[in-house]
Specification:
single chain, 507 residues, alpha+beta, f41 fragment of flagellin, N-terminal domain, Immunoglobulin-like, 3 domains, five-stranded antiparallel sheet, 25 strands, 40% helix, elongated
Length: 507
């Protein structure tokens, strides 16, 4: 048929040319943007998936930044602690030097005390000045806050505790087995040593966790004199003595399974073996559940103790918030992802089987969000205590500021033995903080950055697969579309010229 008013062939060619132009435009758009999905109509499901992956990428990148920032914070804190450690070593040297009493003049001791005062002031200044963007790091800002501390909790250290925003956490301790000293009971059957002859000697070697010492006593020596002699060397042996009835109780100065008392009779001097307080004279162990009571059976005669009679202490056994605690002496500790703390029980608390409401953690700590999601599972919390001189040390040993002029452990006229114990404790505490921060950097921050980097790489690859243009395939599509557009254009030109053929019919 030949029509003029409606050129169907032209309409067909126009439609096909429009389709090919749209395909060509789409290829040009994908090649120019580098994206195969530029709007929802391109691939609705793919757009949803790629946007979710983009969200994950942004969150992972932010988490990596958080971890790197946490690393910077810890680096600054570590720098301050390193200087405190160096200063504490200098104090240790001064204390030991000053103990050489006869070798130092009063002026030299005063000069050493001036150095200690200056060092302690510097430690306080470091504690108050070490900061990150104005936030103090070593003055207790990032320590944990508690309330309602039980009287049976002598000391505590909270290393980490995860808390939901605004939450608190009650700490409950269940003591299931008491802490014990290593101890023995020496029944002498009298208030004085009753040896078989006036010239005889009771000679024994007494040992503890710190060392040993040999003692020798004549017949008629009072039990009080024996205990005084033993206690003179308590700092050497780690063992103390006390009169109990017609005998002597010998105990380790500390609690725990690493403490012991060992007694070896070198010469019994023919000590009287008569009955005393319902039991024959001799060496007895202490009750496993009540160390204030001797076991009245199974004694060892003095004459038979040529091999050492030994008793070992016992660590407290406890649960903390339902978790079995690791214990040393009176100290119990738990370390989980949500709670890392150490408790030192009082003597009463460590020796009484009971449930203790220790305290309630109300907040605090340095919290870092090291995961792409904001929730408690992706957060880590670490406590950084106050390292000022008044906080380094402990309730049982004293604190570092006791070494300042005029205080009980000063270097001029104070107790230097106590001073050294305080400094040892302060060095140990500072080293523990540095060790925890180092472990946090290496095992938490370092591994987090590495794992997040891998996650970012894989997420980016997944998002790229869905959203990015495949240039090899798209350039092929572009070439095809260009050819088809050219062909459609030529066909349209032919279709538009067809109505002119009607003119030939009109002559």
């Amino acid at each position: 048929m030949s029509r003029i008013n409606t050129n169907v062939s032209s309409l067909l060619a126009q439609r096909v040319l429009g389709q090919q132009n749209r395909t060509l435009t789409k290829s040009l758009e994908r090649l120019s943007t580098g994206l195969s999905i530029n709007r929802g109509a391109d691939n609705p499901a793919g757009l949803i998936a790629s946007e979710n992956l983009r969200s994950e990428k942004v969150a992972i990148s932010a988490a990596i930044g958080n971890a790197e920032r946490a690393d910077q914070v810890v680096n600054i804190a570590e720098g301050g602690l390193q200087e405190v450690s160096s200063l504490l070593l200098e104090v240790q040297s001064l204390v030991t030097e000053t103990a050489n009493d006869a070798g130092l003049s009063a002026e030299e001791k005063s000069a050493n005390q001036l150095q200690v005062d200056s060092i302690l002031q510097t430690i306080d200044r470091i504690a108050n000045s070490t900061s990150f963007q104005g936030t103090k790091l070593l003055n207790g800002t990032f320590d944990f806050q508690i309330n309602n501390q039980a009287t049976t909790i002598a000391d505590f250290k909270i290393n980490a505790a995860k808390l939901e925003h605004g939450d608190t956490r009650a700490i409950e301790v269940i003591v299931t087995a008491s802490a014990q000293h290593g101890g023995l009971f020496l029944s002498a059957n009298a208030a004085d040593l009753d040896l078989s002859a006036t010239g005889n000697r009771l000679v024994f070697e007494l040992a503890g966790s710190r060392g040993s010492r040999e003692f020798s006593f004549a017949s008629g020596t009072s039990l009080t004199a024996v205990t005084n002699a033993v206690n003179t060397f308590t700092s050497v042996t780690g063992v103390s003595a006390a009169v109990s009835g017609t005998g002597i109780v010998i105990k380790s100065t500390e609690f725990g399974s690493d403490q012991f008392v060992s007694l070896k009779i070198i010469s019994d001097g023919g000590i009287n073996d008569g009955a005393a307080a319902g039991a024959a004279a001799g060496i007895y162990t202490l009750n496993a559940t009540d160390e204030n009571t001797a076991v009245t059976t199974g004694s060892t005669a003095f004459s038979a103790a040529t091999n050492p009679v030994r008793d070992i202490g016992q660590d407290v056994s406890a649960f903390i918030n339902g978790i079995v605690a690791t214990s040393v002496g009176k100290v119990a500790q738990v370390n989980t992802d949500f709670l890392d703390l150490q408790l030192e029980l009082s003597d009463t608390g460590a020796q009484t089987l009971a449930t203790i409401s220790a305290f309630t953690i109300t907040g605090g700590g340095a919290t870092f969000n090291l995961g792409p999601e904001v929730n408690i599972s992706n957060q880590v919390s670490i406590g950084i205590g106050n390292v000022a001189a008044r906080h380094l040390g402990g309730a049982s040993t004293g604190f570092l500021d006791d070494l300042t002029s005029g205080n009980t452990s000063n270097l001029v006229d104070g107790n230097l033995e106590a001073a050294q114990k305080i400094v040892d404790r302060a060095i140990s505490q500072t080293s523990e903080i540095r060790g925890r921060l180092g472990a946090f950097q290496k095992n938490v921050i370092g591994s987090t950055i590495r794992s997040l980097g891998i996650a970012l790489e894989n997420t980016s690859a997944a998002e790229s697969t869905i959203r990015d243009t495949d240039f090899a395939a798209e350039t092929a599509n572009l070439t095809r579309s260009q050819i088809l557009v050219n062909a459609a254009t030529n066909v349209l030109s032919i279709a538009n010229s067809q109505p002119q053929n009607v003119l030939s019919l009109l002559g």
